[in-house]
Amino acid sequence: MRLNLDVLTAWLPEQWHTKRLGTNVRGLAFMRPLLYEPGISVVAGNLYLTHTEALPESPPDVPCCFFCVGRRLPSAWLSAELSIVQFLDGISLPTVYNRTQEIFDYFDDWDSSLRDELEKDTDFDIRQILMLGASFLHRPINVVDSNLQQLFHADYDSQSGASIREQIGPMPMAHSEQIKEVCTLERTIREPYQSALEMDGRSYCNNLYISNQFCGCISISEFEKPFQPWEYTVMAHFFSCFQKAYFKYLSSGCKKESISLAALRKALGGRILSDEEKQQLSLTPEESWLCFELQAQRNERAFPYDYMYAMLNVALPKTAYTVVYHERLVGLIRVSRQNPYAEAPLAPFSDIVSRMGYCAGISNAFSSLSQVRDYLRQATYVLGRETTHFIPIRFFRDCALSYMLDSCVGEQPLEGLLSRGLDALMDHDRQKGSEYIRTLDLYLQNETSISKTAEALFVHRSSLLKRLDKIYRILGNTLDTPDERLYLRLCMELLRKEKRDTG
Question: Whole-angstrom Cα distance, residue 149 to residue 311?
């Protein structure tokens, strides 16, 4: 394992009197040290140990490092492109050499343990990698997956050592605003970084990628003591090892989608479910399903889909089942058959959706999972409708008529669906400036109530009756049957729809 000056000097005995001189070349990491002898060719990037008396007057012109025992340094060495650690107070060169070798031994042993765990096949366990990290660094380590769901937490206690908790769930909702910031700004960072998210002190993090796809993040927390400069090098090395371990973990199938979510995904794809999968998503006689689709609010910094996916599945177990299907966030909600739209059962779902910056389109209730694709179309339709103000939960039942009308117009041109009598009424309104269409619309909306319609139009009852008589003559229809009235109401809805669509 390569070590830089920050690590090496931090692990020297505290009582040793040393000085760091020269230009302190940054970014250099060294293999085990070599003993310098006058006249040898100095190689860039190496660490050399020697007496100050053995140094030539002119320093080498390559970036490297010297550990020097003695008090006199040639003056030209102080401005050279290299780093120097000078050992004072009579410390011998063999002592410095032996101690330096011990430091390398200590880190090499740890590195070898990490590599041994990585090379395991059938008995590979990513938790052992985390245990080695927490035990060596004496700091907590947290791992989240691509859904920002906490997979593992390695803790360290000086008395009991390292311990592991797993499958913890999403990060706390209490930190939602901070998490939003982290999600949007930090998940694209490719190098180790110090997170802006501070819950239990600062964290040093590394995003995990496989084939350029974000698949998780590992973070090491300060906890009770601030990070020391040397730790950043060691943490970066651990991150590199853990990236390989995480890839192996995912590839080995240790992280599998639950049977219920896999069953939902199959049902959405129109595939036949096994008996076990059906059992996972079975309903009691008193239950029904609602299908939903989620959409991030416009002009809102919403949480990523993958975080919403985790939050709903963990926060509402056995109630909400959420999957990412064709790049859409969709799912099921288990509700009461008697009252599927009751506020109480839907309140937790609605709360999470609105707090995370989303809105949900929700279908009508159904009981057969084989119907889920049909009801997903309902949820999708709801989300596609324009609204004048934000509504986090939108039900298909509130716009079912519009859906039916949209479907009709899709098959036939509008003029082919409208009553010829309505055309005559609209012509009369255009030529005479009358309000026969508006009068008929309100009359139908008020279920042919004379008094309610007159009140809505601010006219006398007798005036309304005379106006309706003229409307009947132009229509060629007295609206005597329910079918006639229904047909004209649908025509009115179609006219309104056309007006909205054309602006």
Answer: 8
DSSP states of 162-194 as a string?
EEEEEEEEEPPGGGHHHHHHHHHHHTT--S-EE
CATH number for the segment(s) 120-251? 3.30.450
Q: How far is the C-alpha of 4 from the C-alpha of 10, rounded, in Å?
A: 10
Give the model confidence (pLDDT) of 157-206 as tens digits: 878 888 998 866 666 655 566 666 666 778 889 999 998 877 667 899 99
pTM of the predicted model over 0.70 = no
128 pairs with which residues across the strands?
Answer: none
What CATH number labels 412-502? 1.10.10.2840
The answer for 212, left when phi > 0, alpha when psi is -120 to 50, beta otherwise, is left
Q: Which two tokens stand for residue 55?
A: 């140094």
Q: Mention the CATH class of domain 259-398.
A: alpha beta
CA-closest candidate to residue 375, choices 274, 263, 282, 267 = 267
Task: Say how far apart CA 289 and CA 346 lie, in whole Å.
Answer: 12
Hey, is 33 helix, strand or coil?
A: coil
User: Could you give the residue ranges of the DSSP H alpha helices within 293-412?
Assistant: 305-315, 343-355, 372-384, 400-411
Instruction: Provide the strand spans (E) within 99-246.
Output: 141-145, 149-157, 161-170, 193-194, 203-210, 213-221
